[in-house]
Amino acid sequence: xxxxxxxxxxxxxxxxxxxxxxxxxxxxxxxxxxxxxxxxxxxxxxxxxxxxxxxxxxxxxxxxxxxxxxxxxxxxxxxxxxxxxxxxxxxxxxxxxxxxxxxxxxxxxxxxxxxxxxxxxxxxxxxxxxxxxxxxxxxxxxxxxxxxxxxxxxxxxxxxxxxxxxxxxxxxxxxxxxxxxxxxxxxxxxxxxxxxxxxxxxxxxxxxxxxxxxxxxxxxxxxxxxxxxxxxxxxxxxxxxxxxxxxxxxxxxxxxxxxxxxxxxxxxxxxxxxxxxxxxxxxxxxxxxxxxxxxxxxxxxxxxxxxxxxxxxxxxxxxxxxxxxxxxxxxxxxxxxxxxxxxxxxxxxxxxxxxxxxxxxxxxxxxxxxxxxxxxxxxxxxxxxxxxxxxxxxxxxxxxxxxxxxxxxxxxxxxxxxxxxxxxxxxxxxxxxxxxxxxxxxxxxxxxxxxxxxxxxxxxxxxxxxxxxxxxxxxxxxxxxxxxxxxxxxxxxxxxxxxxxxxxxxxxxxxxxxxxxxxxxxxxxxxxxxxxxxxxxxxxxxxxxxxxxxxxxxxxxxxxxxxxxxxxxxxxxxxxxxxxxxxxxxxxxxxxxxx
Length: 595
Ligand code: ATP
Ligand code: MG
Prior knowledge:
binds magnesium ion, YbaK protein, nine-stranded mixed β-sheet
């Protein structure tokens, strides 16, 4: 077999799971975000896939395999071609030799909706749920952490079709249960959290997070188990505002106070008495750029995901279908439209539209106020002039209150929970391994996928979609389950259950015993490796630990007493077991572990 372990960590890896998979020879980097799954890894991935498949099949979903090469026409129909190729640029797209645009599938809503449009005619065919397990392609901005964020990776993606939202909810709940079982069976410690449904809208979505420091997502949750959400979506009660020390509206010189901290210190006022005004630039899918000023309480931060959703809602007012991107305009971006230098750090909610010029941009600011700033009295805010603020200001007296009141604040650890204000939000890091989504009719409406209902009417199909990152999950388990010596695979997804190490291969008795154990174990379905390499025993033990095979059998000294040493990888517990008992013992352990 191909077994190449490395003594040194490779420089490309920064987190333990990535280092270990490379060192133990499970994966090999071929290019940025592109990995070869070597034989050991492929066994792990097939086991994870099989668990996913079994749990999907148990819900009545059917497996299929959709093309990875997708024609641009489908993406034009759904309206996602530009977003995926230009704005986010996450889709690998190119022209074929006939000059037709095609793309490598990052996801399959378009393909499956086209199939349903052609093949589902009647309510009698519903509900329907198809899934596949396949390589996906995404040109990630920052591929990293090995299989956790690759540009080619394995995903299970499923799509369900329904007559109505109630039927969708049933399948969604089945998926919730199926996903929990998949993760439990794979040996992952996880948390299901409320997730942002983004521009797709829909009535709900949930992510499954494998808890680990290396996770790119932040999860906020309460100890009572009643609330858990991705920070992108999380809501909470902000701390109460302290009373403003000002009662008179006036303009004050406040030199060198462009930040909330410096201003609060200078004016000797609490940050909660300040209204800060933050500028963002939104670009819509018709290339219209729009500037938005968000007024929010000084101690709070804008949650850009929530703001994106608010800006996406405004798309129709700018003759657009959706939002392409939202950025904080840097100096370079400001040059394109700023008629004069902006009073950055000193902007008020009423910053004049005169600052905007040029054809490329909407001539007025959109103005929004966050719920935290809407009831403030006698507040401090920018005077639209560098080094000046106003104090003692009130909405609708000194400033027109923005018409759009929103929740765009970032919930923070320590905030009180909405469901029970005696609970405070705790924080954890997570690796998103699954996402289930009630899509509704977004794709079916855009692509004309309808069915005939019981009353003979043509109505759009109601859809759900459900993804699991199979390769990401496999590595995430390693991130949770390893020690200084190597990987500790849960038995259910280990590449092999048992490794037999022969310390001295020139000892015929040891070799023969190993060989017959190897044959018998494999015959019983206990997947077993035999390390008969002519290497020092120490090297072989080190490799066995690094590979992370759950049980190690050593045909060594104890053979004289008719015994072998059996070591459990997770606990390093060693015991001598009689040759005629070792098979039944291991069979029992493996069966118990897999359940
Ligand atoms: P992320 O927020 O991490 O970029 P996503 O929201 O784009 O993920 P989905 O489109 O919901 O991901 O895809 C379904 C699942 O596929 C994710 O839950 C994740 O497990 C996996 N996945 C997504 N992108 C990658 C990637 N670049 N590499 C490996 N797995 C991925
Ligand atoms: Mg997601």
